[in-house]
Amino acid sequence: MSAPRVLLWVQHLLGIGHLKRAATLARALAAEGLEVTLASGGMPVPDLARQLGAAGVRVVQLPPARAADLGFRDLLDENGRAVDADWRARRTAALLAAWRAADPQVLLLELFPFGRRQMRFELLPLLDAAAAASRRPAILCSVRDILGGQRSAERHAETLDLVQRFFDDVLVHGDPAVIAFERTFPPAADLAGKLSYTGYVVEEPAKHASRAGENEVIVSAGGGAVGERLIEAAIEAKPLTGLRGRTWRVLAGDNLPPAAFSRLESLGQRVGGFAMETSRPDFTTLLANCALSISQAGYNTLLETVQAGARAVAVPFAGGAEIEQSLRARSFAARGLLDIVEESGLTPATLAAAADRAAARPAPAAGRIDLGGARASAALVARWAAQGRA
Question: Exposed e or buried b for every residue in 75-100, given b needs 16+ CB within 10 A?
Fold first, then answer.
């Protein structure tokens, strides 16, 4: 008998955090014995298909789109042009073709209908097709612990209606003892029977014997699209800290514009003691070995930092209407897992003071939050897939 099949849809629009979390889920699903197709609608990430292919995951790259700005309403295609009706038709056809080819027992949508409303043009036809199929799949939503932006009562009602019409379960990738889903989705109680907390989703740490990053300060900005200010503040903060004699390694992210990278690299050379890179495959090893992590507070970075037991300073991104990073970072700080500098108060001096405070603390104790979300999610999806096949 062939393995149960899962189609996982994800759309990243600015950074790559949503795609990275979906990739972690896809690997866990494959490890659970499921046949996984990942349909990605964001800009292609180099080497992703090869890496996931090695884990047994098939990647389908849909015609890619990205956000025009921090408002996330307007979409641009791979050539930087505003998407039009013809593009939407091509994109919808490509997704429906991926659906038919996968023929899944489980359809798993990342974030929708709690977000990604700008993708309704393709997701509503997909949901209609799945619901009307002669062998209806289980339809699940994969959503992080905190929803970004502000939502009206009308939006909440629309979301609830879509969940009740189409979805069998909502997998919330968080720990209710840390942040309950109703914190940013007040009518969560109306999802009774269709809401499953999984714990936080984070990649299993690699088994490295490497000493990379040992005693260094690791400065990271996720994908880098909105990390320029943080990196500049970190470079200028170094001479003000008790860690000034250490190597500070900056991982600027693949999406930081080349001109910004060059400017920051020159600034680091003037200050001295900096190693500047875009990204590293051994990031979690650097975190495990470092003296201190300074980073934004994206879901993946924060969870990898906590998992590594690193002393840390987080600077939550708060551009546009975003509240997600700030809420999560504050909740983690309340549990003694990190120190915070709010973006509104970010200066070299405030960052240096936070770095010294964090470096002087004992390393955070393990087990304060549930980090088993990847395996728990895979087990839940496998149960739904078994029901769907039956």
Answer: bbbeeeeebeeebbeebbebbeebbe
Q: Is residue 77 a part of any domain in this protein?
A: yes
Q: Is 209 domain-assigned? A: no
Burial of 50 (0-12, 13-18, 19+ CB in 10 A): exposed
Whole-prediction pTM: 0.91
Contacts with 224 (C-beta within 8 Å, 6 or more apart), sequence order: 15, 252, 253, 254, 255, 256, 278
From CA 328, how far away is CA 187, in angstroms rounded?
A: 20
CB 42 within 8 A of CB 255: no
Domain count, the chain: 2
Residue with tokens 């393995």: 3
Cβ-based neighbour number of residue 134 at 10 Å: 4
Task: Mark whether 57 and 91 lie in a shared domain.
Answer: yes
CA distance 151 to 321: 10
Using one digit for the tens of pLDDT, what is the confidence trace for 36-73? 999 999 999 888 889 999 999 999 999 999 988 876 77
Output DSSP code: residue 187: G
* Co-location of 44 and 177 in the same domain: yes
**CATH code at 66?**
3.40.50.2000
pLDDT less than 50: residues of the chain? 390
Q: Which domain holds residue 259?
A: 217-360
Residue bearing tokens 């470079």 = 235
Judgement on whether residues 248 and 318 belong to the same structural domain of the protein: yes
Same domain, 310 and 189: no
Residue type, 241: T
DSSP 241: S
